Amino acid sequence: MDVKLLCENISSSRHSAYADHPIAWNANQSDPESCHYGNKDERLGIDFQVSKLPFLGLQVMDPRLVTIAAGASNEKHRHAHESIFVLLSGQGEMIINKHVITLEERSVAFVPRWVVHQTRNTSTENPLLLLAITDFGLTSSVLGDYDSNTRLKSSGADAYAINTDT
Question: Which domain holds residue 96?
């Protein structure tokens, strides 16, 4: 691996001037940025959005706000970056590999690289808000645009609502 090329990729993929960038974000604020990506498929019970938090100076970490609609889930997916999830509000379940864990406010869950996972909002009234902290910046600098090729597609056989019989 060419370390010089890796360092160039990291520095070119992120902003390096920190002075003009926000250094704090509060979960009570409005949407951090416009939706980065999302998916809605009523047939599969999928309805979520992911927004990037406004910390533009980050080079390794990539914090995002995941919002899952009441009674819905995100699709089952996997990716090369590892993730730590903190439940900010709501209640839900998360499949990590074949384990189903219950999420309550302030719960923290870890998803290793390449492990299939999915989150479901168990409330029928309120959205579920998750803070996702990943190393997407570093991982994408090493692997390139891998995320679009590794997320399971909404119409794919693997992209179905949460099921404890997995």
Answer: 3-12+35-149
